[in-house]
């Protein structure tokens, strides 16, 4: 008499959906930090450039090393976007405190607390609005990126992924589009106009600046001439001699 035994395969316990979602969330949060390590040597695209391509608008970019960019442009961008770039670790705590105090009393701060490091990680990994959801991710990621890349690499990435007009990404593409010259050949006047285009790249045109745009560029050029270069942390060979002073005082006519 033969005895038959039934075989029942072991039950595979499914991971609860909540656990799977939590794991996915952790991976999504960790991915930018892992990418920062890779971007020490890999030249990255930006989220806004990829979005422009996916939307069918196209994108123009030509990556250049920092030493291939005019020192005048470097000084102008640092002065316009983040005057304390060389002094903070990615987040300007003093500027952030001033902005929070101003917001508490319903005032508009004289300058924003966003640094070049914060703008870089936002362009690479995050989104524009709503800012209250973005900022808690932006602060620690900016500190991490600044620590891994250092100031030179941070500025190189920023200048190569920043949007300078619709579908125009990176300073080399911007210099050739607006002025017909490579980034290394930008003049003081051109540098001031391009640097002051960054806050509103789709509304300001460096080739045909409005009177308001010219006035902002004049103010920036005068401030750099008065205060000197703010790029000491990124100097390496090509930022020497007379070019150290960056953008000299340039007068733009506001007459149309």
Q: Which keywords apply here?
A:
mainly alpha; two-stranded antiparallel ribbon; 256 residues; 9 helices; disordered C terminus
Can you describe this structure?
By secondary structure, the protein is an all-alpha fold. Helices cover about 50% and strands about 0% of the residues. The protein contains 9 helices and 2 strands. The protein has a two-stranded antiparallel ribbon. A hairpin with a 2-residue loop joins strand 1 (about 165) and strand 2. Helix 5 (about 115-125) crosses helix 6. The longest helix has about 30 residues, at about 130-160. The relative contact order is 0.15. Mean pLDDT is about 85; it is low at about 235-250 and about 250-255.
- Oligomeric state as shown: single chain
CA radius of gyration:
23 Å
- Nearest-integer average pLDDT: 84
Could you state the order of secondary-structure elements as H and E? HHHHHHEEHHH
* Binned strand content: under 5%
Largest sheet, described in full? 2 strands, antiparallel
Task: Give the low-pLDDT segments.
Answer: 237-249, 251-256
- How much helicity do the residues have? 40-55%
How many helices? The count is 9
From the N-terminal CA to the C-terminal CA, the straight-line distance is: 108 Å
Structural class: mainly alpha
Write down how many β-strands occur, each being a DSSP E stretch of 2 or more residues: 2
How does the overall form come out from the CA principal axes? elongated
Instruction: Give the neighbour order of strands across the main sheet.
Output: 1-2
């Amino acid at each position: 008499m033969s005895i038959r035994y039934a075989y029942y395969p072991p039950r595979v316990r499914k991971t609860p959906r909540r656990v799977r979602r939590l794991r996915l969330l952790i991976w999504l949060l960790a991915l930018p930090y892992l990418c920062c390590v890779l971007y020490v040597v890999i030249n990255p695209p930006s989220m806004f450039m990829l979005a422009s391509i996916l939307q069918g608008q196209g994108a123009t970019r030509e990556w250049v090393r920092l030493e291939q960019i005019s020192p005048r442009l470097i000084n102008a961008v640092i002065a316009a976007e983040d005057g304390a770039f060389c002094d903070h670790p990615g987040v300007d705590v003093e500027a952030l405190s001033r902005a929070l105090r101003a917001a508490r009393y319903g005032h508009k701060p004289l300058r924003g607390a966003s640094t070049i490091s914060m703008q870089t990680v936002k362009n690479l990994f995050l989104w524009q609005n709503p800012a209250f959801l973005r900022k808690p991710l932006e602060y620690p990621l900016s500190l991490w990126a600044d620590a891994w890349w250092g100031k030179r690499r941070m500025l190189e990435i920023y200048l190569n992924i920043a949007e300078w007009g619709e579908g125009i990404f990176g300073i080399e593409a911007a210099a050739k589009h607006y002025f017909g010259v490579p980034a290394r050949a930008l003049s003081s006047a051109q540098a001031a106009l391009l640097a002051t285009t960054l806050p509103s790249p789709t509304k300001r045109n460096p080739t045909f600046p409005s009177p308001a745009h010219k006035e902002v560029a004049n103010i920036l050029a005068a401030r750099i001439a008065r205060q000197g270069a703010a790029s000491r942390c990124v100097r390496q060979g090509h930022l020497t001699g007379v070019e150290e002073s960056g953008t000299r005082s340039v007068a733009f006519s506001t007459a149309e």
